Amino acid sequence: MTPIVADTGPLIALARTGRLELLRRLFRHIVIPPAVHEELAIGSGRPGATALAAALAAKWISVESVASRRVALELAQLLDSGEAEAIALAEQLDARFLLIDELAGRRIARRRGVSVTGVAGVLLSAKASGAVVAVRPILQELSEAGYRLSTRLLASVLQRAGE
Fold first, then answer.
1. Which of 128, 137, 119 is nearest to 161 (CA)?
2. I want to staple 86 with a disulfide (CB 3.0 to 4.6 A). Which of 7, 70, 122, 136 is the partner?
3. CB neighbours (10 Å) of residue 95?
4. What are phi and psi for residue 124, nearest 5 degrees?
5. Please, are residues 88 and 71 in contact by the beta-carbon 8 Å criterion?
6. CA 90 – CA 3 distance, rounded (Å)
7. What are the backbone angles phi and psi of residue 18, rounded to the nearest 5°?
């Protein structure tokens, strides 16, 4: 199966709200680059860190090195290191998609031919598969946890979810 590569933000958001398991249910395996692993701050005690540590220990989230440091360094001129390595790894693995929410990172990934989705896309997939009944309460939880989604995106997601 073609891998899914993830950036830091969506993993933290889903872990903080107790929804990280949706990724395993929907996609079975997630790959992250070393910079994303560092940004997750597993031993920090922050909300969601325990769930992320458990996923890494269970190996349904795994760390894979980026073969082309040149590509990652080139991208790091425009993005943070986690986003840069995630895009480079998605290219390297010919990933099914890159899970990323940061707008600049999404734009650059798309320009480079990498398919992208974000937390909202994951929630829509979860609802379509029956993994969740409604996305509205999860979006509310994300908002309360400090995860920012634009008003326009929220409206679009709720409309697509039929809520």
1. 128
2. 7
3. 22
4. -65, -40
5. yes
6. 8
7. 70, 25
d(CA 61, CA 33): 10
Quick: pLDDT tens for 51-106. 999 999 999 999 999 998 888 888 888 899 999 999 999 999 999 999 999 999 99
Concatenated DSSP letters of 65-128: --S-HHHHHHHTTTS-HHHHHHHHHHHHHT-SEEE---HHHHHHHHHTT--EE-HHHHHHHHHH
Q: How far is CA 122 from the centre of its chain?
A: 9
Q: What is the pLDDT of residues 17-48, one digit of tens each?
A: 999 999 999 999 999 999 999 999 887 778 88
Q: What angle do CA 13, 15, 16 make, to 5 degrees?
A: 65
Q: What is the domain partition of the chain in residue ranges?
A: 4-161
Instruction: Give the amino acid at 58.
Output: A
